[in-house]
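Fold this sequence, please.
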Amino acid sequence: MQSSDGAEKSQQQRLVFFDLETTGLSKSCEMVQLAAVSGGHSLNLYLIPRGQMQRGASKVTGFRVRRQRLYLHRQPVFTNTLREALVSFIAFLQMFGHPLVVGHNIRRFDCPVLARALEELDLRAEFEAAVSGYVDTLPLAREMLKERGLKSFRQENLVRELLGVNYKAHDALEDVRALQALYSVLQPTPELICRHLFTLDTMKDKPAAQSKEPKGQRPLRENVRQTAKITESKEDKATQENM
């Protein structure tokens, strides 16, 4: 039986949507933009990479580095160090009391890039302590929409199909805002969310549709079930109406 304090705590749990833009698609690529959103709260940070931007990445995102300055569509942007960006992200997550981190294709791409950066700066333990787990909306959407015959499950295509709008994709802040709106339309069940739940330690494992609860993971999944049942706040609705 859950105490009133526990029930109140579960009602305060939130979803945080996040996305990265990087120097390329290789395993050694670096972050150039980190963005996150939860309701009306947002975080948007730019970073100067140590390595070069790949030509294809620059063409898609509009980012270029010249004389140690970062430009977005030829306009200079204020940048943070990698440590500053990660510490700010951790502080943002801590605002919401162990939120569930949600992103599109994050299991195969964004989370490995994030984990490598956290480990490099010895911040992984602090980051992990701030979140409840991670959910990738790419396989989630594939499972939920498998009968619709969609040719592509890229985020911009899903937003166009389900929300009827186009947006400025490959800008991390615009991507997370669009994903938050998309997620509210998908409305996955708590059971479906739990099937797609992973951690930085398990992200390389193949997702299992039915699996036994690992030791020590039941509280995490119960928290996720509670999180998924939380109704959308007025603040969230206002954010989506402004999309």
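Strands lie at 15-22, 31-38, 41-46, 63-66, 69-72, 75-76, 100-103, 133-136, 197-198. The longest strand covers residues 15-22.
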